Amino acid sequence: MRGVNGARLILIVNTPGHLLRVLRGGPMKYLRFVFTLGVSSLLLATFAFAAGVRELDFLGPLDVQPSSFIPEAPVYTDEPADPVHADLRPFYKEFERDGLVTIYLGYGIGTYYPARGSQIFEMLKLLALHYELPLVDWNLSGDGSHLSFLNSKRGIRYSITIGYERNEFARAFSEYEIVMYHGHSRYGQGPAFQHYQNYYRMGRGFPTIEVDTRNNYFKDEPILKTDLYPIRWVRFGTRWLPFQYRGQKNGKSELPDTSYTKNVPGLDVDWTRTRFLPGRQLFYFYSCTNKQYWRESIRDRFPSLSHKFVFGTYKINRGRTEPDVLMIVSLLRGTTQSSKILDFLNTTKDCDQCFTTY
Amino acid sequence: MFHYLLTLVFAISIGKVWAGTSGAISIPDPKTGEWCLFGVEHLGPRKLSVGETGKYVVRLENRSACTLKHLRMLDKFPKDTDFKRADPQPSKIRNRRFPHGPILYWNQLKSRPGDIKTFEVELQVTGARNQILKNRICLSLPRDAEEVYCHYFKIRVLP
Description:
The complex is a heterodimer of chains A (about 350) and B (about 160). Chain A is α/β, with parallel strands linked by helices. Chain A folds into three domains: about 50 residues; about 210 residues, Rossmann fold (3-Layer(aba) Sandwich), CATH 3.40.50; about 55 residues, no CATH class. In chain A, about 30% of the residues lie in helices and about 20% in strands. In chain A, strand 3 and strand 4 form a beta hairpin. The N terminus of chain A is likely disordered. Chain B has about 160 residues and is mainly beta. Chain B has one domain: Immunoglobulin-like, CATH 2.60.40. Helix content of chain B is about 10%, strand content about 55%.
């Protein structure tokens, strides 16, 4: 309809004499209305543009965080974005084959709060309205950890799980077609959940990492650097646990002075232990400069871009929900070119055009 | 354009309900080492004037499978604030040197999976205008470990 009205308007403007006749005539009241509406829309759009209002600014009031996300200073700065490109059609084809597209969205320390689920739910609903997506049958679980909806035209259901726990995140790679993470990179030590020391190790920069000896995730790990820091023992209740020193030595562990610290293997040990779905997968990592931190590990294990494709960052990230929902909406709209999704992600004001692909 | 305005109004109305008051704190169970997640809601005015008293409800929900005994909750008041009253009464109040606000302690709490505890706290803004105050809500298990795990909520002092 918009195109038809637009064509009529051009016709009217191009023939002023005809326009006068039209405005006087009764049957042409409709055209006068369309003309007025068109002009006022144009004026409003111009004002909005002049005021710096962005197309998706209506998400802003929903995108409120309980506390500020404080990025950690990245090790890598001034790196080029250097994105890679892929045609995502084979990915969609594979995801949609069974009529169910599964997405896992893990929030790390500093970004998780229970209301995230309902926030994402409401933002997606607004975006579905905005882009006129035929999504129906919206469901949100009581605890906000699971949401789903159906594309009524194509008969495809989308299921999104929102998590915050480290082992669940590791399992997600073997259970979900799209795995997303939003949080800290921990200077490349890996995504961290619930506390700064609960790493999912997937980087190459830290041969060892410091953790508290009481940390259950690393209780069976070998202790390293024992020549520098001999093993000592501390009793907690009935348990005797090994530790090397109190507090932290490397300055990047976020362990308090009261911590009983040990050094365990770092690098990408969790990544190499993780099981993945055999087919194609998309990964989205919204954490500081993760291209520089994790690209090598990911591409060593999965050299082909047509097998596992990553939307990541090459600059610091922030804590808003908008980039996460933009990524999901790109998938819902079936955007086939990775570069288009990348441009869309980079429209977010949450970071300074930080997204790239690798 | 009307569609845009409609969604904007809709978004604002929903946004006001949340007002960014929910956070989370994870604390390790000293017996099992499992990380136990607590949802924290901080309900109350986000903006206060100097001299004004704000009434806040802190809602603590055990969202984990952990049963914790001897849990301690701390409410670390922001700087430039005074404590007025709390319900239930804190077990202990530690006053700090000006401009730091006091710390309220509730000791010996027991928390089972799904338990919800609410604390009503009133604070008064005493200090400078036009600043952001950080109210820290923390959890610890002082019998077993010294570490304190916190989440903060912002309160804006109006100019």
